[in-house]
Specification:
about 20% strand, alpha/beta, six-stranded parallel beta sheet, 10 helices, five-stranded parallel beta sheet, about 300 residues
Length: about 300
């Protein structure tokens, strides 16, 4: 007879999608009760609802936001921080789930499970948010002076429709333009992993520390060049040299495999398996209590 699962009261507020990732992991170990009086509050940076609660608070984000450890007991994020048991570095390049699978895993096979494409197109670009670094628009326009970059998102769309299957669309191309919205150390989103999982070579610009995770020989990092024109000339060279192109595709993806869902599962279990009275971590200062108790008056 299997042991009874520990029952926990939880609530998700101010979310950005972390609930879809965390809930399946939590249900493996615990009996879940959704409550307005939770023992564990999961929140992100899309609102201030979390300030109304005084319980164990776990912050997560898919945006370039630094956790406020005066407000949360535990957090996941992008920064390279060593903060005892309070923090897990969990970049989107490893934690996002698509079609029930972590892109950390699907990136390994580089599109080998997808249908064969006999003649691939030049380059894809899938962005829906017009906000972000001007650099990605500049590179998009520059590459289009050479060959058409197929834009399948809402932003700069030039194929007449928005693609339903991003991975399959990127698989039809040799390269994929994968520029981050923000250039910040450690901020590596799903964009480069999506390109790897489709079998395309990422043309990347963003995280200055991206080569801590990804093999720099496996993609084209625009930051490695003196300017965009130099990067542009190298992309043209790779496009016209089948041997060079194939050598990049044959390179292993990871230098250091980042934290994935297994590490997140362990992180969450460590928090919840403690006695509830021993789980708090955030400072119980006068200021912190004052903010939480008086949020409605701010």
């Amino acid at each position: 007879m299997s042991a009874l699962k520990k029952k926990i009261k939880i609530k998700f507020v101010d979310q950005d999608g972390f609930d879809d990732v965390a809930l399946p992991l939590l249900r493996k170990h615990y009996e879940i009760e959704f409550s307005d009086n939770p023992d564990y509050l999961f929140y992100s940076n899309f609102g201030k609802e979390h300030l109304k609660y005084d319980c164990i608070k776990i912050f997560s984000t898919g945006e370039c936001v630094i956790p406020n450890f005066n407000e949360c007991d535990y957090a996941t994020g992008f920064d390279y921080i060593d903060f005892s048991d309070r923090y897990l570095r969990l970049p989107l390049c490893s934690s996002m789930v698509r079609n029930g699978k972590s892109i950390l895993e699907t990136a390994y096979n580089r599109g080998e499970d997808l249908p064969e494409v006999k003649e691939k197109k030049f380059c894809s670009f899938v962005v829906s948010n017009a906000k972000g670094m001007y650099a990605r628009t500049a590179m998009f326009n520059l590459l289009n002076t050479y060959k058409k970059v197929d834009s399948g998102g809402k932003y700069l769309n030039n194929i007449g429709y928005c693609v339903d299957d991003k991975r399959l669309f990127e698989h039809e191309h040799k390269f994929c333009l994968t520029f981050e919205n923000t250039r910040y150390p450690g901020y590596t989103t799903e964009k480069i992993s999506d390109a790897f999982s489709s079998g395309a070579i990422p043309i990347y610009f963003g995280d200055p520390l991206v080569d801590r995770i990804f093999n720099p020989k496996a993609f084209i990092n625009v930051s490695d060049f003196s300017d965009f024109n130099d990067a542009f000339e190298y992309i043209r060279k790779v496009d016209n040299d089948d041997e060079l192109y194939q050598s990049i595709l044959n390179e292993p993806i990871y230098i250091n495999r980042p934290n994935g869902l297994e590490e997140l599962e362990d992180f969450l279990c460590h928090i919840i398996d403690q006695d509830l009275s021993k789980a708090p971590r955030r400072p119980k200062t006068f200021y912190a209590y004052d903010v939480e108790r008086n949020i409605g008056k701010l």
